[in-house]
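Provenance

Sequences were taken from public entries as deposited. Structures were produced by running a predictor on each sequence independently, with no templates supplied. The record for FAD-binding PCMH-type domain-containing protein from Linum trigynum is shown for reference.
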Amino acid sequence: MNFLLALLLMLAVPWSGSAASPAANHENFLHCLSTSPAANVSKIVFYTPANPSYPSVLQFSIHNLRFNTSAAPKPIVIVTPQTTSHIQAAISCSHKHRLHLRVRGGGHDYEGLSYVASRPFFILDLINLSSVKVDVAARTAWIQAGATIGELYYQIGTQTTTLAFPAGVCPTVGVGGHFSGGGYGLSLRKFGLAADHIVDAHLVDVKGKVHNRASMGEDLFWAIRGGGGNTFGVVTAWKVNLLPVPENVTVFTVTKTIQQNATGIINRWQQVADRFPDDLFIRVILDRTETTTNSTATGRASFNSLYLGQVQSLLPLLQRDFPELGVEREDLIELTWIRSILYFAGYPTDSPLEVLRSRVPLTRKRNFKAKSDYVTEPMSERALEGIWRRILRPDIEDPELIFSPYGGRMSEIPESSIPFPHRAGTRYKIQHLVYWEREGREATDRHVDWIRELYGYLAPHVSKNPRLAYVNYRDLDVGSNNGAGFTSNEEARVWGVKYFKGNYERLVRVKTAVDPRNFFRNEQSVPPLTAWK
Ligand code: FDA
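Predicted structure for FAD-binding PCMH-type domain-containing protein:
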């Protein structure tokens, strides 16, 4: 081994500089990286397993502890680019030395695809490319792809009280993956998805060329706004339009147990939630709690709402259209939009806005498995009772279902506008979740089996042929690419049409045009038509 490389690995500091190395592909890869023209301009920082910081750099952005085990395959190198030229160098060296690439933004992928692969691989971790520039006058923002949505919210909220952006609930989610798969939050009925408001992007393609919207062309620009991450190139920045909101908005959370008629109220919610005025979003979170009377387990529905208006107009609206919920004046909290972000993220609403910048989640990380469904017709109370029976199973640590209403703006945007297709006709989306802390195979199997059984149970009550799913709630159970080599269009369509419906074929055409050898790939990336390995 080259003396300088050996010395630097022994000293175990993030290494930059030039060195030669022996035959193994990954050492050649490191050598390539460190001798690339980009490395002459500024250091390319990377971490190999010999570096004491490697475990913490790897684990910092792993959000599903199911993939943070000693058995999970580990990257040979983690590259943390500081500039676009470092990304170009990593792509070029990956080609030369056939080392598989996984891009990581915020690391929230439900199946760990940004940091786990079954073949030797390296991670291109964009954590250092995380600046956000808000232009209040132009109502736009440029967001580097390694930023979190919390950083975006922070930058908006510290500069204006009347502009907002419709992205997700948890501030630690990365814009890299989130916008690549659509991205929604509590203003979805008013504004649609995060990806609906992307107006430009910077992307490094398979040849290492840097593009903006004009140079990548409208097909590729269409595909990256919802067609899934790690498929068409490495996005380095997004430009988005910001949206106007009132100085004050209103939030509330009202909970009902089974004994308090949760089932009947959810039933009513199914009839009205997607028909409310666009300004009103009420989701329902189903989980388990204890009764106050005799501390036995019961089912609980939390009606959790954002209204883009004030109390004085919300209260009569709820009393007229949803009296069953029994919302009262004292349930309603008026605050600025940015403070509503704190509320839904679980922070006290008077917290300093800086908490939104933290990449450490508020609640502890756990193992989890999730699935998604789309509902077009209300399910019966009997079907809902079957959900409660499953939630009440005492051997399941923390089950949760989230029903998010659609309608409003979501129904107006055409299905083919961006690759995300779930628009008119959708009443609500279900996210099925199960969390657990107990380690080991048995606990994992028990919880994964539970969610699969629940999913089977719900089949008659949700979309069919295909049974639709949300790509950002990644679920490898719905199908995956052929790990052994070429994946045919027929094989990939199995999962592809569930995520993208009729947009899947256009995604394949774009992929075939921009990355025919399938360089950017993972278990659920759209494959090209051609048979390259
Ligand atoms: P990660 O880094 O794991 O990337 C996800 C995928 O995108 C991977 O395939 C990765 O390779 C690829 N990718 C990342 N950056 C890229 C880039 N720059 N260029 C190309 N490809 C790139 N969703 C939602 O819509 N609303 C919500 O409220 C929430 N809330 C939520 C909370 C929590 C706790 C979790 C764990 C997840 C969510 N999500 C969500 C789901 C979330 O939108 C989804 O997991 C995103 O893909 C996460 O993006 P990250 O960049 O964080 O993940």
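The first helix runs from residue 3 to 11.
Residues 63, 102-110, 113-114, 126, 145, 168-170, 173-174, 176-178, 180-181, 183-185, 229-230, 234-235, 472, 522 surround dihydroflavine-adenine dinucleotide (CB under 6 Å).
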